[in-house]
Structures are given as structure tokens and as C-alpha cells.
Amino acid sequence: MQNWAVVPNRGAADRIGREVAKTLHQWGYRPKDDQPQRVVELLLRSADQDGGRRVSLHLADDEDLNQVMLLALSHRQDMPPGDDDQVLRDAEHMRALAALGVRDVGVETEPRGRRWWAGLDLPRPGRDLELGAQRSRALASGPKKLEGPPVPA
Asked: pTM for this one?
């Protein structure tokens, strides 16, 4: 797990996006494009609109499933419940995130701020090859012929 706390601004979103991409690369993930950076930018922009003084971004993964979760927290005291304008803005941000091809997306409001999250399925070429080799060995050591169902007497 990795996390960053920033004062929200455009430069911070770009910097954190690059750091997330670097971390994912170190963890063995190989995104096809700049999807993770664009997701980070949208999450940070969404959290920034809550008006908090800082935003934190958390990155975690599930190696077995090749999945990554990004979570942005807007740190604001006494966060009011969403009004109609806020709900519309949230829906717009979630549609924009979904358009980037994320697995899932959501937002949750509580008095201390809001949580924005997006889950991504990312390839890990080395891991995929290891799993393929394990499957090949398992198939090779299995039965050499398929047995049919019992024949009725």
C-alpha cells in the first residue's frame, strides 16, 4: 500500500499521477495507456471540489487478481450532506471515471469528508506468465485420458 497527502492543485494531480504510475510499474503492473494517471487526476479533482485544505490518495493492490484500488479522501471538517448540485456533480465525476474503463467507482460522504474510489484491472505480464506455467504443469501432471461416464448395466 502506498499513500500521498497533497494540497490540491493541478500540479499535485500531475505529480501524484506520475508517482502512481511509477509505483504500479515497480509492483509489476503494465497498464496499456495512461489510465491510472487519468483516474488519479479525476479522483483528486473530485475530492478537491469538497473544499478541504488537503487531499490524500491511497493505492492498494490485490496481486492474485491483478486489481488495483485508488482511494481519494477529501479532508474537511463538518462536511455537509450532498445537495442536488453536489449529487449531480458526483454523478458527472463517476460517469467520467467509468468512461476510463475502471472496474468499479464510488463515493461516500461522512462528516469528516468524502471518499472517492476507483478499482482497476491491470495486466501484470510476469505474473500472467507464471500463472500460465503453473496451469501448464498442472495439466501435464493430470490424467492422460478423459474417462467417460459409467455405462449403465
From this structure: 0.74
